[in-house]
Sequence to fold (377 residues):
Amino acid sequence: MSVKNWQIKRDMAYPYEEHRPKRQWAIVFDLNKCIACQTCTLACKTTWTSGKGQEYMFWNNVETKPYGAYPMAWDLNVLEKLGRQDWAKNGTYSGKTIFEAAPASERVVHFAPTDEDWMYPNVGEDDCAGQLNAQGEYIDQLPHDQWFFYLPRTCAHCTYPACLAACPRKAIYKREEDGIVLIDQSRCKGYGECVRACPYKKSMYNPITRTSEKCVGCYPAVEQSIQPQCVVNCIGKIRVMGFINPPWKARKDNPIDYLVHEKQIALPYYPQLGLEPNIYYIPPIHADRAYLRQMFGPQVDGAMDRYRKLTSDPVAQGLLVLMGSTDRIMHGFKVDGGKAQGFDEFGKELVSVPVTENVIVRDAFDETRKVARNNTP
Ligand code: SF4
Ligand code: SF4
Ligand code: SF4
Fold:
């Protein structure tokens, strides 16, 4: 079948017909703000994967790029197997996707991590790329010569899931009401085709239940208009979950559409794989451009330039402040008069925050209590 993939700006081959759900679950992450505290990882772990056979599973993980990866080298493996990845000047991907490059009799380019690959969830943490030219060197340019960044990851509830395409039991389905991709545990026989097929390695095998399992998008919360555990517990307030529309239906007042389509500062990762993943990243402005181009495609240069100009854009600033301000799903937002508001699907206000926090400078010496407020009055 030929389906439309807006992230690579062209039609592509996929084993099933194009079908977009009524709503599509999506998360935007601002990678400039992640501190790798792993609170998201533990919030998911304690909620969903504390059972037998799930010990090694981190449906949400945070890895340090470029050297960290869980499972080990998942991204290098898939990029190498895919081969050349060319982009035309107009931003169209001219290479093959994992569906188009699949070997004869297979549906996707695939590989299976070994048991050892799953043993080190935080390998490479804080390992820095690049050379320090001189001891004590002052870094005053972007991108930095020395760099790393944290990449939080969940299942991307892809528009064209490779896990679903590869399952011979048709046990994997995408929900019409929110686009969340689930594995029907009663149909799954644990063949592991989804584990091999998912290029992001977000489907995992449970040796006790002998079935495959994956991030469920926190669907019980989403059904009650509450954002997922890994989002509402994020310490850095770097995430916002909502529903994304395709570009031809984008709404400027929808927080996700605004960041992805209107401002075009949040990008899907490895769009060249062809899955139309629905987790989007604001790229880290200090990191190496060539690496980021490989990860986010040629759109990354424009996205970063626009992100750095947001200081003179009160609407975008207001939306960034709204990230992490409520546990409810925001369907709309408005920024006016120094105030940013988030709304539910009926237009009712969920949250209101000042775009700029008031700064109050206390007197160094409190005359009333006769006490110094600073160490150096
Ligand atoms: S990220 Fe992987 S597991 Fe999740 S929907 Fe996409 S292909 Fe399936
Ligand atoms: S959406 Fe829910 S299930 Fe998925 S990674 Fe986040 S907390 Fe875990
Ligand atoms: S909780 Fe937020 S800041 Fe902490 S590691 Fe996760 S995504 Fe990053």
